[in-house]
Amino acid sequence: MTRTSGILLHPTSLPGRYGIGDLGDPAFRFVDFLERAGQGLWQMLPLGPTGYGDSPYQSFSAFAGNPMLISLDRLRDEGWLTDADLADYPRLDAGQVDFGAVIPLKLERLERAFRRFQAGASASLREELAQFQAQNADWLGDYALFRALKAAHDGRPWDTWDEALVRRDPVTLAEWRSRLAKPIALQIFMQFHFNRQWTTLRGYAHSRGVRLIGDIPIFVAHDSADVWAHQARFQLDSHGHCTVVAGVPPDYFSADGQLWGNPLYRWDVLAAEGYKFWLERIRRQLAMVDYIRLDHFRGFAAYWEVPGDASNARGGHWIPGPGLDFFRTLRGVLGGLPLIAEDLGDITEDVYELRDALELPGMGVLQFGFDPVDLGSPHTPHNFRKSQVVYTGTHDNDTTLGWWRQQSPEIQDHVCGYLGCDPASMPWPLIRAAWASVADMAIVPLQDLLGLGSEARLNTPGKPGGNWRWRFRQTALDDILAERLQNLSRLYQRGPL
Questions:
Q1: Residues annotated catalytic, as ranges
Q2: What is the pTM of this model?
């Protein structure tokens, strides 16, 4: 690892006129800001198509990109949309994503672009599309069919479809593939253009000295192409229902624990396949990003298993995970593992032992580090390690200013006594503490850099709706802010990679 720093921002939070951030000009301007601010990292959340609750951690695919991130302006520039197609796009809230409004509006424009593409794509572009399909054949066909079938079944989960589709009867699948040929082709078209736009953005970031940190959730959504297409890899009954599900026990975020509801793996099946699913998944991500934050790393040591019909996560229990054998297999095939272990939550010594045996950097979160009676916390600055990624807060935390306002006077006195700071200057004392620390990487959510309160919080764990909506305005990223962050990075010898 190199001593560097960066900003956490999910692309949906970028500005723009279409109601949701995308891979168009605002994304490139954000890279320009990172360069001006002397930053080497852009960290984001999972990039897949979102399902339940619009959460990036509940995706319809572990491999596909989110079509809502496709830039309509770039499709217009390529000739697949016209100015008239975009002129009547309604004005939506610029400060937050209204997923219910955005998804149908944007999908309708993507369908227009698809029809023009089918009618007018050049031979060379059609060949490029064919190559994309061939290179992604392991997942693309199943995903496109899955999304077309969901639309044909009014969005219902796959385990409520006809029995022949649930058990993937070959004759039935062939009939539906023929019947849904155009919707399937639309899904492939969207993945093709997501991939082209993402590749262009990543190349631009690299040219500006910026590397990308992606995110892989340990578990996949039950209502996903991954589970439907490979049911034997998961703990399901004969009808495709989950017999047990994932979660975490009661913790900082929830007294009932968190009932995620994801199906649990049959690790014996995955091991017998040589962990093919995970190898493909990591390869796909490394074609898109440079580092991967491995969400819920502790689940590889042991995971919280909850009965499939439970109403909360309190009644679960720990089950041993695949451990070192899993990562040795990955390393043997892939070589290096540019992974960041998300080692937060209820962490036991075996989790740290696994992380350290693999020589993976873990995470430190400053908001967790100021318990006056626990100065031994791994989140307290004097306990940081060099091989670590330090954050003021993560996507699951309140903004630092929101967190600060909720602390008691005693905690605020303790924080300022520790940091030697002026209470009125928060959140910059925590940003400075992250940058000054020994940790090789320091990351600040953009909300903290902008000094925003709880109104800008991206996610509240355990809250079923209203998350993942925050967006910023382009005018917020000015030269004064860039210079301030650049000076901090220069002072503490953090620079681009």
A1: 295, 342, 396
A2: 0.96
Asked, for residue 195, whether it belongs to a domain, the answer is no
Residue pair 210/495 in contact (Cβ under 8 Å)? The answer is no
Domain containing 453 equals 4-63+200-491
Give the number of other Cβ atoms within 10 Å of residue 480's Cβ. Answer: 7
User: What is the average pLDDT value for the chain, to the nearest integer?
Assistant: 96
Q: Is 458 part of a structural domain of the chain?
A: yes
Burial 117-146 (b: 16+ CB within 10 A, else e): beeebeeeeeeebeebeeebeebbbbbbbb
> How do residues 264-310 score in pLDDT, each as one tens digit?
999 999 999 999 999 999 999 999 999 999 999 999 999 999 999 99
What type of residue sits at position 305?
A: E
Q: Is the peptide bond before 464 cis (omega within 30 degrees of 0)?
A: no
Tokens coding 149: 């079938």
The DSSP 8-state label assigned to residue 348 in this structure reads -
- Give CA–CA dist 60/153, Å, rounded: 15
Classify burial at 318, counting beta carbons within 10 Å of its beta carbon; exposed 0-12, middle 13-18, buried 19 or more. middle
DSSP string spanning 456-478? G----TT--SS-S-B---GGGS-
Whether residue 444 contacts residue 4, with contact meaning beta carbons closer than 8 Å, is answered with no
Q: At what angle do helices 323-334 and 349-357 cross, to 10 degrees?
A: 20
Is 58:157 a contact under the CB 8 Å cutoff? no
Tokens of 3: 């001593």
Q: Is residue 192 part of a domain?
A: no
CB-hemisphere CA count at 13 Å for 331?
Answer: 13
pLDDT one-digit tens code per residue, 218-248: 999 999 999 999 999 999 999 999 999 999 9
Note whether residue 27 is domain-resident: yes
